[in-house]
Amino acid sequence: MEPFRVHILGCGSALPTLKHFPSSQVVEIRGKLFLVDCGEGTQIQLRRSRLRFTKISAVFITHLHGDHCFGLIGMLSTFGLLGRTAKLTVYAPAELSDILRRQIDFFCRDLEYEVAFIPVDTTCQQVIYEDRSLTVESIPLEHRVHCCGYLFREKPSLPHIRRDVADFYGVPVSQFDNIKAGAGFTTAEGEQVAHERLVLPADPPRSYAYLSDTRYIPTLHQRLKGVTTLYHESTYGEDNLLLAEKYHHSTARQAALVARDARVGQLLLGHYSSRYEREEVLLDEAREVFENTHLTNEMDVFDV
């Protein structure tokens, strides 16, 4: 099975602390790297992660609060200093376009690579990126500014060749692609070997949803049915429910309700308020509702 991993670079919230970096992740899927949010310090965390971050082909920004985008211009500048030539595409709410262009024109006049900007409509769920192996959809969220999450979905793959059966019947490697596509095989003696005997079922497609700052939305699970792994902000515990409602954030228990109702495989918590010295209180609250819940921490890597 091809790698599909989430690398946690930062999982704190707006107030800087010595414990956590602001929001940032790398989604690694089938050899491709995508950056999701880019808070301060992201480029430092990329170096610590030992990822080949020059391979990042796209950046997805959820909203224009500083803890999710203040690191972007610095990272773009560093890419230029490293001699990047490959195009980088930034997907974000439309308001970032003019801001980013002004920053590039002022701080990064001599970039040798193209920065393409794609505005994202945060009010609807739609496919905003697609290639041969995956799609990325926007997920509308409700925060104090325009905001959306992102859903990474693998496309269905082809079945696997049963090498023992293929070798038994003398199937040449040149025929493997045809067989994966549904063909059978005829031996030199004229025996017909059915497609079903030559393959094993394809791996089930995996999916990862990243939901950043949002108030609890009781119907949100309907957009996430069966997602393999869900990251949902959990800024507060139930002890600060009023603050969550005031600032349009979610509690850990509310994140777990979304995970439970969507029947996801596992839930990752993050975007912790600095008021919590021990995030285990958030984990305990979430696990009362959805058992397969995990805290995120910088440099954690999760298999989707």
Instruction: Give the % helix.
Output: 10-25%
Instruction: Give the total of beta strands.
Output: 18
Order of helices and strands: EEEHEHHEHEEEEEHHEEHEEEHHEHEE
Number of helices: 10
The rough form would be described as globular
How large a portion of the residues is in β-strands, by DSSP E? 25-35%
Task: Report the radius of gyration as a whole number of Å.
Answer: 22 Å
Measured between the Cα atoms of the first and last residue, the distance is: 11 Å
Largest sheet: spatial strand order: 6-5-4-3-2-1-18
* Average pLDDT taken over every residue: 95
Largest sheet: 7 strands, mixed
Alpha-beta classification: alpha/beta
Give the low-confidence spans.
none
What does this structure look like?
With 304 residues, the protein is an alpha/beta fold. It is 24% helix and 28% strand. Strands 6-5-4-3-2-1-18 form a seven-stranded mixed β-sheet. A hairpin with a 5-residue loop joins strand 11 (185-186) and strand 12. Helix 9 runs parallel beside helix 10 (280-287). The protein is globular.
Give short descriptive properties of this protein.
alpha/beta, about 30% strand, about 300 residues, 7-stranded mixed beta sheet
Task: Provide a concise account of the structure shown.
24% of the residues lie in helices and 28% in strands. By secondary structure, the protein is an alpha/beta fold.
Please outline the helices and strands:
Layout: E1 4-10, E2 24-29, E3 32-38, H1 42-49, E4 56-60, H2 66-69, H3 72-81, E5 88-93, H4 96-107, E6 115-120, E7 126-130, E8 134-140, E9 148-154, E10 160-161, H5 163-168, H6 176-180, E11 185-186, E12 192-193, H7 195-198, E13 199-200, E14 207-211, E15 229-233, H8 241-246, H9 252-262, E16 266-270, H10 280-287, E17 293-295, E18 301-303
Parallel strand pairs: 3-4, 4-5, 5-6, 14-15, 15-16, 16-17
Antiparallel strand pairs: 1-2, 1-18, 2-3, 7-8, 8-9, 9-14, 10-13, 11-12
